[in-house]
């Protein structure tokens, strides 16, 4: 299906003061202080994850800072970590008398206390994590100052800062590492409405690179096509279009001066195999996810006659292989791009009266994600 987008209080009255005191009292008695989303063993996230309160942190030891998380996303890989099927593993933590794992790999935190012998970090600084699988689904953590990356002041909105470590750098690096793309070149991608896909569209468009984007069909498809087009997508199709013979003809016409040399794949399965038929000679297929949970099968002829090259990309490996300076440079580059926030929903568990109530809401949301909820969910535990 080919679719296009159309289109503080100076002098409070006594009554007000009573209301404020009543509110404060209700808040402090209604909930414990700090909470974490934990699990004792791998399994289905909606069954094994639970919310647990813990005592306030003591002051940080030398070389460390206490941080308070403001927002932490739930990414597909976080789900895989909890399931026990992801190669990067968290280390066990002691939370209120239990040895458990804390979920979450990225998030925006604020420095709230600075230990001795720490340079360059101050109370109120916004930081993200320089350490993988640290456990970001928590109100507060103590962390070595070396394991945080200070974010450029004013560089990001709260949501963008909370989601800056994984998806935008993946999009940026995949667009720069494999093919030397110039203005008017073309990129093909699936999972185009994913957070990575949204970043790919925007980063490509800023360079005048055109994108052909594939998404799954849905009742509000027109809205999705419009929002991706507004981000800068050149064309948006559902996978159903791959069985329409006219698609290849259209693509050939559009790309006649610059046949497609980059396909970004986070889905795999037969639809991705069909997408490879749209590629030109000497193209590169970069796989960075497998949301369909199906293998990727490729015709041998593509390698022989069209000189296709295939790659895997893992941002985690990029971080392992690059210096802190390179990482900070990438953060500055991304800040300058001023990307639109990914489509998202915030799951605010801070007001829940008990750990049980917070766990129930969390599990309801995890069930929704498992069923295919399309927006990025971010956790707020404070
Ligand atoms: N390798 C790396 O370094 C790296 C880095 C970042 C992300 N990733 C991977 O990239 C992918 C996207 O991550 P994200 O955080 O951007 O995701 P996200 O915003 O949570 O979006 C998930 C995407 O997957 C699609 N999807 C889900 N199930 C699908 C299925 N059965 N068939 C086809 N599409 C399906 C969704 O489409 P609908 O809207 O139709 O449900 C949506 O486009 C994930 O696989 C993630 O693990 C890899």
UniProtKB/TrEMBL annotation:
Pfam families: ADH_N, ADH_zinc_N. It catalyses: a 2,3-saturated acyl-[ACP] + NADP(+) = a (2E)-enoyl-[ACP] + NADPH + H(+). GO terms for molecular function: enoyl-[acyl-carrier-protein] reductase (NADPH) activity. It is found in: Mitochondrion. One of its GO terms (biological process) is fatty acid biosynthetic process. It is an enzyme of class 1 (oxidoreductase). One of its GO terms (cellular component) is mitochondrion. Its EC number is 1.3.1.104. Residues 43-379 form the Enoyl reductase (ER) domain. CDD domains: ETR (cd08290). It comes from the Eukaryota. Keywords: Fatty acid biosynthesis, Fatty acid metabolism, Lipid biosynthesis, Lipid metabolism, Mitochondrion, NADP, Oxidoreductase, Transit peptide. Belongs to the zinc-containing alcohol dehydrogenase family. Quinone oxidoreductase subfamily. This is enoyl-[acyl-carrier-protein] reductase. It comes from Dichomitus squalens.
């Amino acid at each position: 299906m080919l679719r296009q987008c159309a289109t503080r209080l100076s002098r409070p009255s006594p009554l007000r003061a009573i209301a404020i005191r009543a509110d404060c009292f209700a808040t402090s008695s209604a909930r414990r202080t700090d909470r974490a989303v934990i699990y004792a063993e791998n399994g289905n996230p909606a069954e094994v994850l639970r919310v647990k309160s813990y005592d306030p942190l003591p002051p940080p030891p030398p070389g460390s800072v206490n941080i308070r998380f403001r927002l932490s996303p739930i990414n597909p890989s976080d789900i895989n970590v909890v399931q026990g099927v992801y190669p990067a593993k968290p280390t066990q933590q002691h939370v209120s008398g239990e040895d458990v794992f804390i979920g979450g790999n990225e998030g925006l935190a604020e420095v709230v206390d600075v230990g001795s012998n720490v340079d360059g970090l101050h109370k109120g600084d916004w930081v993200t994590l320089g350490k993988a699988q640290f456990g970001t689904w928590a109100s507060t953590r103590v962390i070595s100052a070396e394991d945080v990356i200070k974010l450029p002041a004013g560089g990001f909105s709260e949501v963008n800062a909370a989601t800056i470590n994984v998806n935008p750098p993946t999009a940026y690096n995949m667009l720069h590492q494999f093919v030397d793309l110039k203005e008017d070149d073309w990129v093909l991608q699936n999972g185009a409405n994913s957070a990575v896909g949204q970043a790919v569209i925007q980063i490509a468009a800023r360079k005048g690179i055109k994108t052909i984007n594939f998404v799954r069909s849905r009742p509000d498809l027109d809205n999705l096509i419009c929002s991706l087009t507004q981000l800068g997508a050149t064309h948006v199709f559902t996978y159903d279009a791959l069985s329409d013979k006219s698609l290849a003809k259209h693509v050939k016409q559009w790309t006649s001066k610059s046949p497609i040399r980059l396909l970004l794949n986070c889905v795999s399965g037969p639809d991705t195999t069909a997408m490879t038929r749209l590629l030109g000679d000497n193209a590169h297929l970069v796989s960075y996810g497998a949301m369909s949970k199906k293998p990727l099968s490729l015709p041998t002829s593509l390698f022989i006659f069209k000189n296709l090259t295939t790659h895997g990309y893992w941002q985690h490996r990029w971080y392992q292989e690059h210096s802190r300076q390179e990482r900070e440079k990438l953060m500055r580059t991304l800040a300058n791009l001023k990307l639109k926030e990914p489509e998202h929903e915030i799951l605010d568990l801070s007001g829940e009266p008990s750990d049980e109530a917070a766990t129930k809401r969390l599990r309801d949301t995890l069930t929704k994600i498992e069923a295919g909820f399309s927006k990025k969910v971010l956790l707020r535990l404070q």
